[in-house]
Amino acid sequence: MHVHLPQGSVPKDGAAAGVPMFVALASLLTKIRVKPDVAMSGEITPVARPPRVTGIKEKVPRRAPGGIREVILPKRNEPDLDEIPEHVRKELKIHLVTRVDELLSIALEIEPHQPPAPELTAAG
Hints:
- The chain has about 120 residues and is of the alpha/beta class.
- About 25% of the residues lie in helices and about 10% in strands.
């Protein structure tokens, strides 16, 4: 599947909408729900490494009061975390990712693997 939204062609949430769109498509295709308390920002590139995004200082504090408990950001934004108020950082679990394959285990409601129940046999 290839989704391409060149800048200027379709109104969107900016370059940082790639990560949420990737997670939404993965959720649609796998039928696994996205966690309702996770916010995310980031761009997807052809090499699948989310580059640094702008506006972290403005985006993250607005997410904390709305029931968001986890935030997914590109690892390259780690220096920007110092700009987020300490009380907001304490309320959130912030995941810094370097590859898109890390996103799904954080963002989707994937149940831990349960071992199969032991089989019951009749004694006889």
